[in-house]
Amino acid sequence: MRKQQGCGLLRVLLLLLGVSVVCTAALGTGSHRLDHRNHKHRHLGHSLHKHRQRTGKEGQVLHRSKRGWVWNQFFVIEEYTGPDPVLVGRLHSDVDSGDGNIKYILSGEGAGTIFVIDDRTGNIHATKTLDREEQAQYTLTAQAVARDTNKPLEPPSEFIVKVQDINDNPPEFLHGPYHARVPEMSNVGTSVIQVTATDADDPTYGNSARLVYSILQGQPYFSVEPQTGIIRTALPNMDREARQEYDVVIQAKDMGGHMGGLSGTTEVRITLTDVNDNPPKFPQSVYTMSVSEDKVPGEEVGRLKAKDLDLGENGLVAYRLIDGDGMNVFELTTDSETREAVIKLKKHVDYETKRGYSLKVEGSNPHIDSRFLTWGPYKDEATIKISVEDADEPPVFIAPSYTYEVEENAPAGAVVGRVHAKDTDAANNPVSYMIPRYTDLEKFFSISEDGLITTTKPLDRETQAWHNISVSAIEIVRVNIKVKDVNDNPPELASNNEVLMCETVPPLTYEMDHRQHFSFSLAPEVAHNQNFSLTDSRDSTASIYVLRKGFSRLTQDVYFLPIEINDNGFPPMSSTNTLTIRVCSCDSKDTILSCNVEPYVLPAGLSTGALIAILACIVILLAIVVLFVALRRQKKEPLIVFEEEDIRENIITYDDEGGGEEDTEAFDIATLQNPDGANGFLPRKDIKPELQFPLRPGMGRSEANSVDVDDFIKTRIADADSDPTAPPYDSIQIYGYEGRGSLAGSLSSLESVTTESDLDYDYLQSWGPRFKKLADLYGTKDCSINDVDDNEDS
After folding, report:
1. How many angstroms separate the CA atoms of 199 and 252, rounded?
2. Segment 329-348, tens digit of pLDDT
3. pLDDT digits (tens, 9 = 90+) for 536-555
4. In principle, which of 208, 339, 544, 723 could form an S-S bond with 510, CB 3.0–4.6 Å?
5. CB 266 within 8 A of CB 195
6. DSSP state, 172?
7. Residue 448: how many CB atoms within 10 A of its CB?
């Protein structure tokens, strides 16, 4: 590019902001040039064109003047947090043909650190997040130079990049928390205080710094103006005496208070100040006081105070006497510290003359608020009743002095005269008289109890013509002297220290009562006994608890319980006393019958209840006996009564194994076939049975010796059928024989020896002598029952 051709056009592209930068050019015609590109961003063109010559219609040559461009400000959004740098704008020169020979240079605030430029394209980017509150704008200089020689192709151009504000700062109350005061009873709308919040955002851009105030806490007592932040009272007649302090929370919100705005809060403590809105009030309408007649003027008689709920000078009360018959006798002053009305004696009072006075006192506020005059009156009245108390005054003589004459040489006992004094008190006590010895050293005179003065010896006028003596009148008062007690005796139980207790009594409580203040406890040696416990009631009484459910006089009839008693005197005294607990005999109503130690003997006479119980038992026993006899009579007797049961009806159990071959008496098979058992005769089991009485007709002797049970049973059946005295057929006992036609065969071991058996009992021969008999019976198959009988006989 050549200088004579002028400077190329430098264009700055402002992207993403939608803001046009207006540049003014000093043209010959005063026109402005604004270059628009075919994209969303506007470009500002700035160029020095080659000087051209133009020819007008009249052939005049026109020369175009050089244009000077003025750069305005550019904008970039603060707090951008995107992944790519923000494009601020673009520099472009008309001499840039796109071949890369042009290099763009950026200098100024933040150049190279915050703002970087692409030296080929001229794009300017912000590489860091910008904060408008830290720096609101940056001044930069842009220039296009030749890439190979770094020679400027256009003069430098300065421009400003302003950081565009966003709402990233909440409102803050820099002076909070606040303290405010407002008079009580203020009218609605009275201004209390104005709170102000600040917002660091740009107040000239958008609503980021447009604040609106609202109250979050403190309603309905106070309100706040949304635009100014002035807090005002919202309720009338707010009374400090009811509530003095209020905590109010104020919120300031930006964005005009709309949703999405940021907010901040502050606290305002509002205190109600006092006004004189309460009149003074005496707690009592009538006060009672007393004054002794011997009090001197100026002494205090009593005090009273009116209460005013207001503070400071609003609560001051002034007192004055307004009426009463004692206004000339008493006076009223005010204590400057306690603000009490003090009644003082102004003149002497005499009990015998007047015994009571009445005063009326008024208390009023000296400072009255004119706004609350209609709430008055701001004063109160009270009546004081003052009674005069009698004092013990000395007797008073009727005359202030007495003069008497007496002849000289008068004998002793001569009457000189009488003096008289009286007690002015209401009690009118008697008066006695005496002559002080210092006024009558020689003891010439004496005085009686009624005031009569007499001589004690003759008087001599020549020696002493006048005698001046004094007489004293003294009230006779009874003096009662009481001897005070000191703690010189240890405490002890009363004389009746024995307790009677039933031996069947459940756990009960026995109390010990004393009028003085004592403490009780069990002696250490019985503190853990299992019979009784003690509980001190802390009111000079103690309770004895019975721990067991019952006692026995036979075991122990008297219990001794040592109790330790302590007093609270000075010096403290203590003692251990023994409480005797005697176990007594009581009736069902816990009435004590006897507490003496005596053997238990049944009483000679029985009570009606005991007799009834005994008779009832006898009747029940007789009824049981009669019932038992009746049942036995109704029971059917068997047709045949045996003295003993037939041996065949029982299973006989032996505890021994038998004696083997030597034992020939263990069991006799003949017992099973012995018909004598039906006749009541039972043979011995330890010997071979023998017939001891004739057999019945029809029974041969061979049957007795037969071992065929089947034949025996059939014979017995035939006898039973032919014998009318025999029991019926169904009463015949069942024996262990199933009959000859049974498929199971006989279970009898006696018959098994006569039948063929596949069992081999030869091993019994090796079992020893004890099983020799059994081996002979079963070990040989051809052994017959007769052989067995022969062996048994042998």
Report:
1. 10
2. 999 999 999 999 999 999 99
3. 888 778 888 888 777 887 78
4. 544
5. yes
6. B
7. 11
